[in-house]
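I have been asked to look over a protein record a colleague put together. Alongside the sequence sits a line of tokens, each denoting a local backbone shape. I have pasted the whole thing underneath without changing anything:
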Amino acid sequence: MLSSTDLVQAVTADLGKIRETAPLVLSLTNSVVQPLTANLLLAIGAVPAMLNDAEEAVDMLRSGTGALLVNLGTVTREQGAAMQTAVREANRLNIPWVLDPVAVGALSLRTRLAGQLKEQSPRIIRGNASEIMALAGYSSVTKGPESTSSSADALHAARELALHTGAAVLVTGRTDYSTDGRQVTATENGHAMMSRVTGVGCSMGALSAACAAVSPTPLQAAVSTAVLMGIAGEMAFEQSPSPGSFAVSLLDSLYALSPEDVVRRARFLSL
């Protein structure tokens, strides 16, 4: 288990690598969050590519993509087939990919698709408590895409899911938990206003893909995601305490985020 000092150093290293290498993140994501997702990736220093077609996704993966995001937020049967194709190609090319199983457990099409995708070697699975519990095979209660359980409630399911899939699992909530099934890191950065803006959670999936493109391990990428987004959320609220302006300030805060901010603000919870 890394010390808090080691964790902070790893997060700042990931931030620096993203800005130095500008990884291309191919996002097969939902239509509601595409603008925020693309702008968030640009703000942190990555390069977004937003596609839905299977043939074009394969072409993009072969052109030097750093990571792939698969987000099920507004999935259709056609898009689901494209996701399957993209995942197979990413695995063939050894490109890390992230599964964001939005509203899994609440709706049948995406629940079936997520069950298939989780068996195809995602590097990171990012979800709220209800989504992670459902994907792990536990009963959960959702309110649309929102969780009615706490992230701590899903920790056991997250560890089981990580061991089963080989992925790092990032459970987001008031406390964010990152686990590979053996190690667990809990981070307490963030602000409640983040839950009042559509797409922030989904954009964390995109950020985790950017981190996965540069980080030495999926678990470290998950931790970096939680810390960087959480700190940016805190900084954004200090500037803009209302939802509309907060969304803009979140992008500004990610753009301005410095290693010193990480050192000063990162908060890890002892388990």
Remarks:
- DSSP finds eleven helices and eleven strands in the chain.
- The chain has one domain: 4-269.
- The CA atoms of residues 106 and 259 lie 39 Å apart.
